[in-house]
Each structure stands twice: as C-alpha cells, then as structure tokens.
Design brief:
By secondary structure, the protein is mainly alpha-helical. It is 44% helix and 0% strand. α3 crosses α6 and α5 crosses α6.
Length: 165
C-alpha cells in the first residue's frame, strides 16, 4: 500500500507543470491550501484596532504603494506594473474577502510565506503600520468600478468600519 501511494505521489509530482507562468496543478493546490488552512487556524481573531478613517486609509495606501504594489499591483489584483510572473502566482487581494481574518492577514504580512515571493515585513513595518495596510487592502476590495486610480480612492465608503474598539 505504501508503495502504491509513493508511486502515485511521484507520478503526480512529475506530471505537474512547474513553470512560473503555469497555473498550479491539483496536487500542489490541494497541499498549499491544506498547509495554509493549518497555519491560519493557529492565529487568533484579533480585530484591526484602527478605524477606517481617511487618515488611516491614506497611511495604509502610502505603505501599500511603497512595498506591496510592486507585486500585488496598485489595484490589488495581483499583477504589478512590471508584469513579473511569480511562482506560485501573486494572489489577488480583491478575492480574499472573508477567506482570512484580519489577524491572519497581519500574521502573513509580518511573517511572510516560505517558498513563495511573500517576504516577512516585520523589519520594514511596525505592527500599527501593518494594520493600516490591511485597512487599505480591504478598502480596495470593496471599491466600486469608478474608473479612478486606486491612489485617488481614499474617501471612506458607507459600510466600512467607522470606529475601532
């Protein structure tokens, strides 16, 4: 039985297209999601201590544009201006609403994700700055298609959190 499982694993591994421009295969996607779920479960559900004010959004936008937009794009869709293809691909921040808690996102930004292009930003940003980046990425994911560039979209929209704890 062990030999059959091992043979299947090797065959699956060899069938995968490991190019940086390819969509991850089923085995890789399954394993990545499994490990990410386990890592996310270890994080607490600490809410973002910063309210979604124009000042906090502006600060988050500036931090995002300094370090995050190169890979995630100015609009958060996962494709930076350089068109660089990472493997695994850079995720769209527009599609993660509800997949991860704010605390889990904070953990990913702080610690990074090993074997990907996502570095740790623990030495670049303070914890407060990371919380503001999270506010900005959540704001981006809620944006209507206004035609305005994201750098001009800092007004607080109805339905966003107006006050912190």
């Amino acid at each position: 039985m062990v030999a059959v499982v091992f043979a299947f694993a090797v065959a699956s591994f060899l069938r995968e297209n490991w190019g940086a421009d390819a969509t991850p295969g089923a085995v890789e996607t399954f394993l990545a999601n499994l490990f990410l779920r386990q890592a996310r479960q270890q994080q607490s559900d600490i809410p973002n201590p910063f309210p979604s004010t124009e000042e906090n959004l502006q600060a988050g936008r500036e931090f995002y544009e300094q370090q995050c937009a190169f890979c995630h794009g100015p609009d958060g869709k996962g494709q930076g201006a350089m068109g660089i293809q990472f493997y695994p691909p850079v995720p769209s921040l527009m599609e993660v609403e509800g997949e991860m808690t704010e605390a889990q996102i904070h953990f990913v930004i702080t610690k990074g994700i090993r074997y990907t292009a996502m570095p740790s930003f623990a030495k670049v940003f303070t914890s407060d700055e990371i919380w503001k980046i999270i506010l900005w990425t959540q704001h981006l994911s809620r944006q209507p298609l206004s035609g305005k560039p994201p750098s001009e979209q800092v007004e607080v929209f109805a339905g966003e959190r107006e006050a912190g704890p």
